[in-house]
Amino acid sequence: MVKKLLGLVAVVVLVLIGAGVWYFVIRDDSVEKATTECDPSPCQESTVESVDGSWAVVPADSQTTIAITETIGGIADHEVEGHTAVDGTLEIAASSVAEATFTADMTTLEFTDAPPGFNVANRANAMKTTGLETETFPQATFTLTSPIELGDDVTSGEAGTAEATGDLTLHGVTKPITFEIEIAADGDTFRVTPSEFIPIVLADYDMAVQAPGFVADIAAEGSFDFLLVFAQA
């Protein structure tokens, strides 16, 4: 009887170890990059008479993504993913974006660890008073400081690239930033996302994250991403 019990315990331990190895080491928990791809695909050629004028973010179809790596128990890296609501406007003149401002509502920040369903509400609660300090700094903004040249084929439905330069204000700190964007027309809307995740060094924005007891370390650099869907205002 004792041997059977010990055998059962051994099996349970092996299963738990195997599950832990899969969850923290083997499985792919990388954060998925937003794209300009349309659903249904492909994106459609623009149906607007002219792209010039005012455009506004469609909040229900847009979001920002925040990603950073935690080292759990000092042995396994785990990529954390968070999302916020976003709003904003831009002005286009002669196929050039002359003005643009986007605002992420940091008070809507929610984290979800993979696999789906393992929601970590405590992390968002912690970010209210540490790290991003969303209670003190409820908004992050990007304001364009140089025009974005869209090119002649911006209405084709095919994704094109351009360079965006502006001021990013995060955690109350404003810094200049330049990154490549992808933009694609889809009927009466446009879809915009960075070509790659945009790196953010926490110390550059006066951020310090206090890790929970079961987390040995949090990376000094994170990244952010977004998908902005625009409709004419």
Describe the protein in words.
- The protein has two helices and 13 strands.
- The chain has 233 residues and is mainly beta.
- It has one domain (31-232): Lipocalin.
- The N and C termini lie far apart (75 Å).
- The model is unreliable at 9-28 (pLDDT under 50).
Helix content: 10-25%
Q: Structural class from helices and strands? A: mainly beta
Cα end-to-end separation: 75 Å
Report the top-level CATH class: Mainly Beta
- Summarize the biggest pleated sheet: 13 strands, antiparallel
Shape: elongated
CATH H level: which superfamily?
Lipid/polyisoprenoid-binding, YceI-like
Strand content: over 45%
Order of helices and strands: HEEEEEHEEEEEEEE
Give the mean pLDDT.
Answer: 84
How would you summarize this macromolecular structure in one to three sentences?
The chain is mainly beta. It is built from two helices and 13 strands; from the N terminus they run H-E-E-E-E-E-H-E-E-E-E-E-E-E-E.
